[in-house]
Amino acid sequence: MDLYARVNILAGRSVRLPRGKISDAITLDNDPVGRAHSWVSQGADFIHVVDLDAAANRDYRNRDLIDRLIGEVKVPVQVAGGIRSQVEAARLIDSGAWRVVMGTAAIEDQTMVYDLCAKYPEHIAVSLDVRPNEELATRGWTQNSGRFLEEVLLEMASAGVAAFMISEAGRDALVEPPDNSMMRDALAIVEEPIIAAGGVRHLDDLRSLMALQKGGHHLSGVVVGREVTHGRFTLEQAKAVIAEGVPEEAVDRVIEVAPHIADAADQFRRVAAECELAASEARTAAVRLMEMDVPKGSAHAFAAHGHLRKADGMLDDLATLHADRAVNQSPPA
Predict the structure, then answer these.
(1) Dist. CA 274–CA 157, nearest whole Å
(2) Which of 61, 89, 137, 281 could form a disulfide with 169 if both were Cys (CB 3.0 to 4.6 A apart)?
(3) Residue ranges per domain, the chain?
(4) Is the distance from CB of 138 to CB of 93 less than 8 angstroms?
């Protein structure tokens, strides 16, 4: 497993995003190139650069800085953020980027991905932000795409993408554990390298990701960033864990489950997705109200209430279904 060190760039500065929102960005330093060099000196295998200005605002002020970073750093660099055209992808590759990583644009314009993969084989990766029900979120987690993990993985694999970066929309990597079931599903669907892009809380999370496998196919990498800068572990410690490998008894196994159990699990994922949407609407409502925008704040508050009611109804249905099965499976008196 390889370690990808993240460098988020906003207005020429290195920043971190606590929950993926640019409005919450916290400045780390004013030298993203120096930060990249630091990651390399600590042992990073690759640098994963995210241009937040280009991603959020179509502002390409950081591109010269990124070109310099690519030219100076001694490990391969992949670039994400605002790559919405063949021209921009080609410019970055010609500047020396090892890979360009496409997100929303890849989901919304599959033809462009096919064309780029044909012209630049092994240089195009796709980033997928996945909700608990495995629907893909787009535009910085603000929208639902109506498309799901399996179909897009298969579609992009057929296009010839070099790798997939998979993260969980809305997850706080320092607090919440990675969704191993989501990563396991991805490993079962495609043969292309799968990289866990959402980060880990600690070295035990790293070990759990290393243990995932399907048909001998393991995760090829994990992106790290603020868990290291927060002092949870060092890159040296992470590389030591990777070098140790995974004991045979700890290797994840794919377990066959009854169809009704699998269906219930899927329903609970959908409940979780509704709760996450409710939380997102509630947070937005709070922001709008603090801005004295009462109409919009109230609208988002009602939306949060609607998502919670839907989740509550789904839980009631699951409870009824469970009770019915319990009665039907009871032995006769």
Answers:
(1) 29
(2) 137
(3) 2-250, 259-328
(4) no
Residue 47 · residue 76 · CB < 8 Å? yes
Beta strand 77-80 with 143-148: parallel, antiparallel or unpaired? unpaired
Distance, C-alpha 322 to centroid of its chain: 33
Query: How many C-beta atoms surround the C-beta of residue 27 within 10 A?
Result: 11
Residue written as tokens 């191993």?
Answer: 180
pLDDT in tens, 24-75: 788 888 999 999 999 999 999 999 999 999 888 889 999 999 999 999 999 9
- What is the radius of gyration, based on Cα positions, of the chain? 21
Q: Which CATH number fits domain 2-250: 3.30.390.50, 3.40.50.1000, 3.20.20.70, 3.40.50.300?
A: 3.20.20.70
Question: Rounded to an integer, what is the distance from CA 21 to the centroid of its chain?
Answer: 13
Looking from the CA of 94 toward its CB, the CA atoms found within 13 Å total: 8
Q: Is 26 helix (H, G, I), strand (E, B) or coil?
A: strand
Residues 6+ apart with CB under 8 A from 16: 8, 25, 26, 28, 225, 226, 229
Q: Convert the pLDDT of each residue in 91-140 to its tens digit.
A: 999 999 999 999 888 888 889 999 999 999 999 999 998 888 888 887 76
Indicate the Cα dihedral angle 222, 143, 106, 60, nearest 10°: -80
Distance CA 16, CA 25 (A): 6
Give the SS3 label for residue 47.
strand
DSSP letter at 173 equals: T
